[in-house]
Amino acid sequence: MNLGLTGRTAFVAASSQGLGLACAVALAREGVEVTLNGRDEVKLAEAATQLAAISPVPWVVADLTAADGRSAIVEALPEVDILVTNNAGPAPGALEDWDEDALVGALRANMVPAVELMRSYIPGMQKRRFGRVVNVTSAMVTSPAYEMGLSTSARASLTAISKSISRSVARDNVTVNNLLPERIDTPRQEFMATRLMDADGIGREEARRRISSTIPAGRFGRPEEFGDACAYLCSAQAGYISGQNLHLDGGSYRGLV
What we know:
- By secondary structure, this protein is of the alpha/beta class.
- It folds into two domains: about 10-180 and about 225-245, NAD(P)-binding Rossmann-like Domain (Rossmann fold, 3-Layer(aba) Sandwich), CATH 3.40.50.720; about 185-220, no CATH class.
- The chain contains nine helices and seven strands, in the order E-H-E-H-E-H-E-H-H-E-H-E-H-H-H-E.
- It has a seven-stranded parallel sheet, sandwiched between helices.
- Helix 2 (about 40-50) links the parallel strand 2 and strand 3 (about 60).
- Helix 1 (about 20-30) packs across helix 9 (about 225-235), helix 5 runs parallel beside helix 6 (about 150-170) and helix 7 crosses helix 8 (about 205-210).
- The longest helix has 21 residues, at about 150-170.
- The protein is globular.
């Protein structure tokens, strides 16, 4: 299927690795002019090398959680057709860990940057009558786990405001959707496996087996599956899909809607 994206421009936040990079690769394959982002220039250069076989890819070194970082992004890339927001989530924890600093920090990392970037880019999308915003959130938004409460709460805030925004811009062919991953085989899953290894005194293979056994599909998701879902939501064909939450979780979500 031709997704109708050739020549479009995209900014993919936190895209030097993991889910962000998977989205960038999928978009680049569809002919999108992608700009990468991260805080580590060495990692960004490595990511750009991976993409070089598809197309040359510029990047912006900037911290999404800082106002000057977001300003640097917009200065380097004043307009885009596609915005993919993403950022690493807070570490797992418990109620005693979630003081005011932790709560505000989670919002600054996983809600504020996405909204600020939408504020910068959506008006231009509306004027050009094409825009696609995809927020990478988490399956925990609809199926909260206690230890992920900090991440869940910040991403749920983003989900709520994104729904509000989506209704006001749909008439301009601008869509706002959320991708909700769970157990995609990225460095985040390595982190979770390491936690289990340390907690239970087991090896990596056993830790990964235990985690994957909880997934109805019986395996981890592949980053390219996630990236392709992102590319479709950005496509010309997806113009009638907005304000939605798409689970990519191997069938783990137990709800009906």
